[in-house]
């Protein structure tokens, strides 16, 4: 089966009566046009999306197929991440953390509140962040929410 467009999102409620089959797409694959995947139920699928996906990316619960009272839906699984908490007394460290993560060209996401950031795990970044005063860091499995991404660039069609 080939899925060639995003039909909507489960959150819309338009697919409430459908059986949901999830296909895992890693957070860093969400801006790719072509995928060969297997759903959690074991069905092989191909995903061939248009160039617009390079700008908007796939999101959690995007519907890629609807038929026979079933839908195939995007699941972005949790990944090992660094969760960064900015101490209330050191809110100025928010800029320092953003600078250091940006300097590594790493992805950065807002966390659960305005004093929390999340970045995918890598040991050098963890070691760097552990040296900074006024923040606390922990490693956790986190579902990265692309809607909370902090970025200054847009994927282009070139």
Q: Compute the average pLDDT.
A: 92
The portion of residues forming beta strands comes to 35-45%
Instruction: Specify the biggest β-sheet.
Output: 5 strands, antiparallel
The helix tally amounts to 3
CATH domain class name of the largest domain = Mainly Beta
Key terms:
Alpha-Beta Plaits; 5-stranded antiparallel sheet; mainly beta; 3 helices; 2 domains; 158 residues; elongated
Overview in brief:
The protein has 158 residues and is mainly beta. Helix content is 15%, strand content 37%. The protein folds into two domains: 2-75, HSP40/DNAj peptide-binding domain (Sandwich); 79-150, UreE, C-terminal domain (Alpha-Beta Plaits, 2-Layer Sandwich).
Question: Would you write up a description of this structure?
Answer:
The protein is 15% helix and 37% strand. It has 158 residues and is mainly beta. The chain folds into two domains: 2-75, HSP40/DNAj peptide-binding domain (Sandwich), CATH 2.60.260.20; 79-150, 2-Layer Sandwich (Alpha-Beta Plaits), CATH 3.30.70.790. The protein has a five-stranded antiparallel β-sheet with strand order 11-8-10-9-12, with helices on one face. The protein has a four-stranded mixed β-sheet with strand order 2-6-7-3, with no helix packed on it. It has a three-stranded mixed β-sheet with strand order 1-5-4, with no helix packed on it. The longest helix has 11 residues, at 93-103. The two termini are 28 Å apart. The model has no long low-confidence stretch (mean pLDDT 92).
